[in-house]
Specification:
mainly alpha
Length: 330
């Protein structure tokens, strides 16, 4: 009965469904595989300056971080698919996979903090018509965006691996309470707000300093590539609204027991995902070519980041909606 829903025959909360958890773990893991392979291909160049210097970030660190991402994402994918198709539910293997995911935060630190911070620190003049401070400001907003998007993706994978582990240990009914889901909803809604606010600030800097319409030279601050500033600002406002929706759900401002609330969360997340694809990813189609190899690679990774950001709050809202406060632990 628990596989069909979150409630047993008596109405008590029995924990999240096992196959649903394994499926979502597989989804997040395969998105990370794509990201890791893309990053590795980008920096596996024999002609690279492996050691780096005062002006070049060591390429060997970026390559190792990409390879680490492939390893921990594959471990999650194997556990998820093993549970889905072969019913090889083994808590020990899941725990080992979670350990590799913890090592994977090395990749998170390198690509979201260390490398972008190095770029900001080494920024100098020559970004006409942007001033040095404006360029640094856009890059810093990119760091905040990376923290949010990559945090949602890697955090989501670990979340579902952790959930699957407790299901395999038959502890999910005790662990996954309303307070647990509320805390995670606050966390992932904060990621959404951080992504929206950082993108809004970056877009405002660009549109104020440069111009409206298509930019001749795109402004890049991974995970953002600003080609049409108006699109950047529009989608950032939508993302911010979605973040506040998640916060409101966690604070019980909206009635979570209502089916419409659950459905509204799912539809809102789907709308934000489509808007992000249309306003953030598809405009990069014109950047194909030898002049923008890293930009094209970023465009191939973006859909996974965009999906993870909107999926986690919607999932957590659905779980909160499934728990009756009258019968479930608070």
């Amino acid at each position: 009965m628990a596989e069909k829903g979150d409630h047993g025959s008596t109405g008590s909360y029995s924990g999240p469904p096992r196959m649903q958890t394994a499926g979502l773990l597989s989804v997040f893991s395969v998105l990370l595989v794509i990201e890791g392979v893309t990053r590795t291909n980008l920096y596996i160049d024999r002609n690279s300056d492996w050691d780096g210097d005062s002006r070049i970030f060591p390429r060997v660190v970026l390559l190792i971080a990409g390879l680490v991402e492939i390893v921990f994402s594959f471990s999650g994918l194997l556990v998820g698919l093993g549970e889905l198709f072969l019913e090889l539910g083994n808590a020990t293997l899941t725990l080992f996979s979670m350990f590799t995911m913890l090592i994977g935060w090395f990749t998170y630190v390198v690509y979201t903090l260390a490398y972008p911070s190095f770029i900001v620190d080494k920024a100098s003049s020559g970004y006409d018509p942007l001033t040095e401070s404006e360029y640094r400001g856009i890059q810093i907003m990119g760091i905040f965006g990376s923290v949010a998007y990559c945090g949602a993706l890697q955090g989501g994978q670990f979340f579902f691996a952790h959930q699957l582990y407790h299901i395999q240990m038959r502890q999910s009914g005790e662990v996954y309470t309303r307070s647990y889901y509320k805390g995670r909803l606050y966390c992932y809604s904060f990621f959404v707000l951080l992504a929206g606010l950082s993108q809004l600030v970056a877009g405002c800097i660009v549109i104020d300093r440069l111009a409206t319409g298509e930019l001749h030279v795109p402004q890049v601050a991974s995970p953002y590539i600003i080609i049409y500033p108006e699109m950047t600002i529009t989608v950032s406002v939508l993302i911010i609204c979605y973040g506040f929706f998640g916060i409101a759900a966690a604070m019980n401002v909206i009635p979570l027991a209502e089916f419409r609330t659950n459905m509204a969360g799912a539809l809102f997340s789907a709308f934000i995902f489509v808007a992000q694809i249309g306003f953030m990813d598809l405009p990069q189609a014109g950047l194909q070519g030898d002049n923008y190899p890293s930009h094209v690679s970023l465009g191939s990774m973006q859909p996974g980041l965009l999906l993870a950001l909107v999926l986690m709050p919607a999932y957590l809202i659905s779980k909160l909606s499934a728990i009756d406060p009258g019968v479930a632990p608070v």
